[in-house]
Amino acid sequence: MIWQEIKITTTQAAADAVANLYHEMGFGGVVIEDPQLIEEYTRSAGWDCYKLPLEVLQGDSITVKGYLPLAKNESIGVGEEPALMIEFRKRLLDLLEHFQGAEGQISLSQVAEEDWANAWKKYYHPVKISDLIVVKPSWENYVPAAGEVVIDLDPGMAFGTGTHPTTVHCLKALEGYIRGGELVVDVGTGSGILAIAAAKLGAAEVLAIDLDPVAVTIAQENVLFNGVQDRVKVMAGDLLEPVQNIKADIITGNLIATIVKRLGPSAWEKLKPGGIFIGAGIIQGRLAEVLEELEGIGFETAEITDEGEWSTVIVTRPNPKHCSSQRL
């Protein structure tokens, strides 16, 4: 499929409103390139493992890109625009009137779907997460040091390359808490990176769940490529609904604050006493409300990891307190 890329250069203040306009009008995808945010993550969140092009890093303006599938507009002639684009231009002009200095320069180009899906790969190289864990793109060569746990990964269009702070937090937490023989459940598995890591770190059984069918397919492929299909089962479903009658040792959820809160009660129900729940993808401004929710259920906070704008919480389901009683 060929996509029409509509690129708008605008101000920081107008960027979110422009992105929302794309969503409202049903464009096939939205990408925001913010040089200030990229520079911040390069400094604070471990993105120095690869090089980004200067055109992405330089400048004060923000670029917001949306994609329109041209296959649905086969009657478009040379020099013509689909009706959706004409309406989009009109609504964009109306929108930008509310933002001082936000002119909203528009440029158009065509992108083949395979190029869109694979262009990011040239910036993705092996990442050493810790002294033990290395995440390696499946298309790159890497000679592991003695004792290293290497995760071969092709994320495709699923979340989870190993470079995002939330994924790094979860990988390090799994390394710290897996002793061998555990039942681990990974909710929102994405590329399968955490599930594969759990198996390679010694978990006996891993259940990997995702609601997105694309992610399920990609995770299954990565599980096979890493040779852990005997311990990792990938399932489609919402949160913990696909798994019944289990008592897990560890549950991971690299999600967002709202979904971590929603996952809390079922994680409590499906964890063993003494079990661990790792909740990630929480922006720091919402950390307090997530902790309040989880502690209200009964979890005890064991650890909080902060990096950049992101927080990860590790909580435990405590063992029942032993108490004596007197018969009257």
How would you characterize the overall build of this protein?
With 328 residues, the chain is an alpha/beta fold. The chain folds into two domains: 2-119, Alpha-Beta Plaits (2-Layer Sandwich), CATH 3.30.70; 164-316, 3-Layer(aba) Sandwich (Rossmann fold), CATH 3.40.50. It has helices at residues 12-24, 35-44, 54-57, 83-96, 113-118, 165-177, 193-201, 213-225, 257-270, 287-297; strands at 2-10, 30-33, 62-69, 105-112, 127-128, 133-137, 149-153, 183-187, 205-210, 232-236, 248-254, 271-283, 300-307, 310-316. The strands form three sheets. A seven-stranded mixed sheet has the order 10-9-8-11-12-14-13, with helices on both faces. A hairpin with a 4-residue loop joins strand 5 and strand 6. Helix 9 packs parallel to helix 10 (287-297).
